[in-house]
Design goal:
By secondary structure, the chain is mainly alpha-helical. It has a single domain, classed as Rhomboid-like (Rhomboid-like fold, Up-down Bundle). Helix content is 61%, strand content 0%. The protein is built from eleven helices and no strands. The protein has helices spanning 21-40, 43-53, 57-61, 73-80, 88-109, 111-132, 144-157, 165-169, 183-186, 190-209, 220-237.
Length: 245
């Protein structure tokens, strides 16, 4: 399928990884929190921090567990779990994906919309994890669900122009402001369909063979929840309007 010229990216080139300030700030917070847990807090305090801010499905279902954070943690952990990571490998892996896909979305949305959109992705990921494993006591941590929402948003506007995605990352600022086609049109594009097939297929394989390692780098249901939310809620956050919309 040939994409409507109105939705083609602008010409021009900048550096490939041009991170917006909000993304730099988020990465600094993620690393700062991990350093705090690993090297500053004692073991008991680090565990208490994990239990207070990680997402634990059974805590949401049963408020009598007496975990750190009390009643408030049953609500705030739908978002705060995204700021914690299991280990350095988990953090670095997520940071690379955040830089690769979050940058384009942040430039397009602006800081406030980007943060709100990221929160929606995190909440959706935790909600699907809760629906699949409501009695699980294993802490869910990691920014993967929010990053999955970024990947879905990028698929809505950054995969449809000529050239590979990395080339788009280095495009002129105008490229980030081009109108996004409707979801129905995007889903007719071979590149988007291939991206979706590989992404969902990989996560389903993790779900079947990965053993449900919620506290590590693989939380397949959270990934899918964040991604679907990113696809569906993208228009609500997108400040760029299509011609005639």
């Amino acid at each position: 399928m040939n994409v409507d010229p109105r939705f083609a990216p602008a010409a021009g080139r900048q550096r490939v990884f041009n991170l917006p300030p909000v993304l730099v700030a988020i990465i600094a917070v993620l690393f700062g929190l991990h350093v705090l847990r690993e090297y500053v807090l004692g073991r008991d305090a680090a565990v208490e921090m994990l239990l207070a801010f990680a997402f634990i499905p059974l805590r949401v279902m049963d408020g009598s567990l007496g975990l750190p954070g009390g009643e408030g943690a049953r609500a705030w952990t739908f978002v705060t779990y995204a700021f914690l990571h299991a280990d350095w490998a988990h953090l670095i892996f997520n940071t690379l994906w955040l830089a690769a896909f979050g940058g384009a979305v942040a430039w397009r949305f602006g800081a406030a919309r980007f943060l709100a959109f990221s929160a929606v992705g995190a909440i959706a990921g935790a909600a699907l994890h809760l629906a699949v494993s409501p009695s699980d006591m294993v802490p869910l941590v990691g920014a993967s669900a929010a990053i999955s929402a970024h990947m879905a948003a990028a698929a809505r506007f950054a995969l449809l122009g000529p050239g590979p995605y990395l080339a788009f990352q280095g495009a002129s600022p105008a490229a980030y402001r081009r109108p996004a086609p409707p979801l129905a049109m995007a889903l007719q594009d071979r590149r988007v369909l291939t991206f979706l097939a590989v992404w969902f297929g990989t996560n389903l394989l993790f779900g079947i063979f990965g053993g449900g390692v919620a506290s590590g780098a693989i939380a397949w249901e959270a990934h899918i929840g964040g991604f679907v939310a990113g696809l569906l809620f993208f228009p609500l956050f997108d400040p760029v309007r299509r011609p005639g919309a």
